[in-house]
Amino acid sequence: MSGKNKVFEEVKRIAADITAPNADDVDKKARFPVESLTALKASKILSAGIPESLGGAGLDILEQGELCRILATKCASSAMVLGMHFIKVSSVVHFGKGNTKIEDYLRSVVKQQRLVGSVTSEEGVGGNLRNSITAVEVDGDRFKLTKHSTCLSYGAEADDLLITCRRNKDAAASDQVVVLATNEDFTLQQQGEWDAMGMRGTCSPPFTVTVEAQTWQIFEPDFATIAARTMVPDTHYIWSSIWLGIACDAEARARALVQKRAHKDLTQLPENARDLAELEIRLDRFKDTVKSVGECYLKAHVADDEALLTSMAFSLKINGLKLNASQLVTDICMRAMAICGFAGYLNNTPYSIARHLRDALSAAPMIGNGRIIETNATHLLAFKGDGL
Questions:
Q1: Confidence (pTM)
Q2: Fold assignment, 118-217
Q3: Helix 34-42 vs helix 3-14: angle between axes, to the nearest 10 degrees?
Q4: Does domain 3-114 have CATH number 1.20.120.450?
Q5: Helix axes 76-95, 34-42, angle to 10 degrees
Q6: Tell me: the pLDDT tens digits for 92-108?
Q7: What is the three-class DSSP state of 112?
Q8: What is the CATH number of domain 223-382?
Q9: Which residues of the chain form CATH 2.40.110.10?
Q10: Least packed by Cβ within 10 Å: which of 49, 93, 255, 288?
Q11: Contact status, residue 154 vs residue 118, Cβ threshold 8 Å
């Protein structure tokens, strides 16, 4: 069995044997899925996207997305933690090439299975990823910053953080850089509680983050380049894969219930069987959308096609993936619940869709759909191509 196949088999085992039995408790208590993450670290899954030359498994972004989809069929919170980590590491890998210190850091991620978190949200910017208030303050070969994050994903559990901020105190809000802060560089002060409708195990309350670190930890390209080249497409693809995992399990539960009803009377089509067939069409559409856009992105990523990846056509396509996926996951979960009826509405049945639906509803506000639609609308006013 190849190294990549072993990674997939391990994640399937962890999902079935460890993630699934703890999913309801993680959701109910809004607690970090420590059992899943402990198992993922023990199996070296956190370094799956790091090149083999640095000790990782060398999985591409589509393969990483599939790992997240598998995990999401059992617990979306566990999958989202892994997915957010993969997204951050992907940017470090791509923009750290040839940088000895960053490559040494990536080796430490492999060896220690360090969990990398994200600090892109900030008080006062209205959810706009491409604006920052906090500025880097450089003094010689060191820098410091203090950022008030409104939602720091699994912040208390993260070993390291990638943080967006203004280049300096005189820079415009959109003139941003990304800094890497390791756990010895930062302190956290929690500012609120995490009691969300869904994705409760991601444990993402607001924090004030204070950092003092070395200037080599400030990435060379500006955030606009990093966002367009890796972070935004990685985010939309990984998140869509997670939402697909939620939808796949919702459909599987609805199908199991309809099949159970069919076995009671083989002479007629059971109630809601046609609804199940309609649901399957939507799930196939979801799978095809994720696959086609993912393959387009991977081809451009492997070719390092900067012109394509920063083009209006690609922005429309990758934004469209996020919009489609966030709408389809909710629609599929709602339809699955309607098929399952009261058994789907209850929390304590094998056919419950309650957690799935609550997790699915997080999709629209994550990088808000309204903001993405505005971006696409602006692009379309100037777009003259035929798309990709």
A1: 0.96
A2: Butyryl-CoA Dehydrogenase, subunit A; domain 2 (2.40.110)
A3: 160
A4: no
A5: 40
A6: 999 999 999 999 999 99
A7: helix
A8: 1.20.140.10
A9: 118-217
A10: 288
A11: no
